[in-house]
């Protein structure tokens, strides 16, 4: 029997009694060390032996999960975010900046008017559960092409509205994942606009990585040349605070 990384993570999480939520995994200081022991070897093999542009499996509508959990942060809860909710995000803008030639400030209407991709994929959480849902959104590639990346851009950083321990959530990916055809900025789920619990008005879907990389409540997309100058320098909130691995490929 082949033991996949997802099954291994799920088994470790279950054995550790840590299935209460991704946002609570860090309460057990031993978990990251157990979870990511041997991760460097796995990551090296995965990046060396797999095609990172290969597509994640897509499913039929009848295979969609009846329940898709709202995991992690379910509402930023700030006055600024609540004002956006109250106005149906009419005044919300996605900022696209950093190492780009043409900084953007895109309204939700503008984003929804861009060519969209719909994909039914499986979300795999670091705590071991999974669910299949339908996502609708603009390929990140189209947004980056419109902004025009500068030659020294190497990573894309997603700054979010939700706060964890008083610090804004953020994540990052490299350009291989940024230009993957299934990497989208999703504005819809299961034939409806995103709900607050699932990251309205915009969330990242990066289908070949674990759930903590799928940033919700995205407010800003920044192109950078180096992750070491961003916050704790490891490329993401959980990477900085709980020693999660930056590359969470599955």
Automatic annotation (TrEMBL):
<feature type="domain" description="Oxidoreductase molybdopterin-binding">
    <location>
        <begin position="89"/>
        <end position="225"/>
    </location>
</feature>
<protein>
    <submittedName>
        <fullName>Putative oxidoreductase</fullName>
    </submittedName>
</protein>
<dbReference type="InterPro" id="IPR036374">
    <property type="entry name" value="OxRdtase_Mopterin-bd_sf"/>
</dbReference>
<dbReference type="InterPro" id="IPR000572">
    <property type="entry name" value="OxRdtase_Mopterin-bd_dom"/>
</dbReference>
<dbReference type="Pfam" id="PF00174">
    <property type="entry name" value="Oxidored_molyb"/>
</dbReference>
């Amino acid at each position: 029997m082949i033991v996949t990384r997802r099954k291994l993570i799920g088994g470790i999480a279950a054995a550790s009694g840590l299935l209460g939520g991704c946002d609570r995994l860090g309460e057990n200081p031993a978990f990251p060390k157990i979870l990511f022991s041997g991760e460097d070897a796995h990551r090296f093999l995965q990046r060396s032996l797999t095609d990172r542009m290969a597509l994640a499996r897509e499913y039929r509508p009848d295979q969609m999960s009846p329940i898709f959990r709202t995991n992690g942060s379910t509402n930023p809860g700030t006055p600024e975010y609540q004002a956006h909710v109250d106005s149906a995000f009419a005044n919300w803008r996605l900022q696209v900046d950093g190492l780009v030639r043409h900084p953007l400030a895109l309204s939700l209407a503008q984003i929804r008017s861009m060519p969209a991709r719909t994909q039914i994929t499986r979300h795999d959480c670091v705590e071991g559960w999974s669910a299949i849902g339908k996502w609708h959104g603009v390929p990140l590639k189209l947004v980056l092409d419109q902004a025009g990346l500068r030659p020294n851009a190497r990573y894309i950083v997603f700054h979010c509205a939700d706060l964890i321990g008083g610090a804004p959530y953020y994540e990052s990916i490299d350009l291989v994942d940024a230009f993957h055809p299934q990497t989208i900025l999703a504005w819809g789920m299961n034939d409806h606009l995103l709900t607050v619990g699932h990251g309205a008005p915009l969330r990242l879907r990066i289908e070949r990585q674990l759930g903590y990389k799928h940033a919700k409540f995205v407010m800003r997309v920044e192109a950078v040349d180096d992750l070491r100058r961003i916050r704790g320098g490891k490329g993401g909130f959980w990477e900085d605070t709980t020693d999660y691995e930056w590359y969470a490929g599955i």
